[in-house]
Write the structure tokens for this entry.
Amino acid sequence: MTERILDLSECPAKLRVRYSQLVIEREHTEAVSLPLAEVAVVLVSHPQASLTQAVLAGLAAAGGALVACDRASMPVGMMLPLNGHHVQAARFAAQARAPLPVRKRLWKQIVRAKVRAQGAVLAELVGTDRGLPALAARVGSGDPANVEARAARRYWAALFGDGFRRKRQRTDENLLLNYGYAVLRAIVGRAICAAGLHPSLGVHHHHRGNAFCLADDLMEPFRPIVDRAVVRSIRDGTIRAVAEEDGRPRYELTPSVKRALIAPLLGRVVLDGRQSTLFAAASAAAASLAAVFLGQADRLTLPDPAEPPIVPSLAPDE
């Protein structure tokens, strides 16, 4: 099945539903329609974009996610399906009572996969993995030595220089990372709901104001896909800085920039030795997590961090 990511930011648009089709109407342009079942994520940032209640209900019923963005095109809210699985109540219960040792073991696997993937990105883009694979091997249950943070210090400095700090409010490379991560979070959150799990009940992340703790946990091994796209797009000139502030480049989320950041999320990763879409890989990870909670498995199914994703080429108008 086709999985589509729609970004409504360039011009006013009206969205409605007709015969299980999402209809997108714009001024002076012929209406476009596509099956609701093919829509994975809709990002809405244009202030004059409007949606009917049928769009919200139809998108949720079809398993899609909707992300609301502010005027700067940065996501500020997300809607996910409420009913994701026919045995959802039983899975919620198993998830809620998962013992601490199980959650710590899961977090160990997640951090190891993330750090190994970061090492692969550095080896590809910088020419050295900066010792991250060795660090990954030292991650203990629950990551008590905070290897994740130690790896991050080496990783970000190698990718963007010693002056880079991972701070969400900045408009340097952080702006690009934030947008890509937000779309990735919606994809993973959608997969979590489809697996019958609750996105608020995290394995490691926990905050009473965060409704998507589990999505933040499970997306960690996938984040380097976005990181790779940011670096590659800057290097090949697809994404260019518009100015410089305090010694750091400043970027803007133009339509072409967002296309470059979304492209890798439409590509393929290697899962169990075979090429798979990112959507399928996220679904496999969520399903395996549910199996662990139910006592049917002891490990997560995650993409091979050593294999770079295959990124599709997008036409200028996609």
